[in-house]
Amino acid sequence: MRVGIWRLLECIAQRGLRASAAINARVCMGPAEPVARAMLDAGWDFMGHGYHQAALHTVADQQENIRDSFNALSDYTGKPPKGWLGPGLHETLDTLDYLAEAGFKFVTDWPMDEQPVTMRTSSGPMVAMPYSMELSDLPMMVVQQHQSRVWLERAIDQFDRLYDEGADQPRVMSMSVHPYIMGVPHRIKYFEAAYDHMLQHDDVWFATAEEIYDWFTERE
Fold it and tell me: 7, 52, 88, 94: which has the highest count of C-beta atoms within 10 A?
């Protein structure tokens, strides 16, 4: 958060792109607020990621945590957040209902498919957005301890296949990265290289998760 985030911000801004930030709501009101401000100024979308960093099944009041996250992000950004990525992707049987009740529209806790999927909740539809654990830097670098170039090879392989399939039907490719992992000096060049590879191709839409949600629901 002190160093790596600025490398990620610079990489994305230099290429004229924007991203979606899954953020603990308390970041917007604590010592790390300048990080939240930089992402907001860069035009990034904010997604709920808990009020603080704790899996939802461990918090005292899950419903309150979700509601407080929604309200804090709404107040800070000036608009209600649409997306949610739970800390650790953890949910309970009640989570989707609580998310929809609070006002969230889509969730990325369900790593499946390469297209959005609509699910039912007690408070209306909830869209499950594509999210790939296979391209997340946390399991690859921290848990499985792959060498950094393996992430780049996998990202390129994923993109190339989806790009070919996308000629017939749209496909969504997500890359989940963390400032303290992909933003370190010995890995950032692989993140940059992945974008440079994708930018060489025509007919690729570099969209935020919120933009994909809007596109999907307008055509559903």
Answer: 7
Separation CA 116–CA 211 (nearest Å):
12
Show the DSSP H helices in 15-147 as ranges. 33-41, 62-77, 95-102, 137
Query: Which residues are bridge partners to 117 per DSSP?
Result: 128
d(CA 121, CA 162): 30
pLDDT exceeds cutoff 90 at 217: yes
Q: Domain of 132?
A: 4-219
Structurally, the chain folds into a number of domains equal to: 1
Q: Is 95 exposed, middle or buried (0-12, 13-18, 19+ CB in 10 A)?
A: buried
Distance between CA atoms of residues 87 and 64, nearest Å: 15
Domain containing 154 — which CATH number? 3.20.20.370
Q: How far is CA 104 from CA 6, 52, 97, 153, 183, in A?
A: 28, 17, 10, 34, 29
Q: What is the SS3 assignment for 100-116?
A: HHHCCCEECCCCCCCCC
Amino acid 187: pLDDT:
96
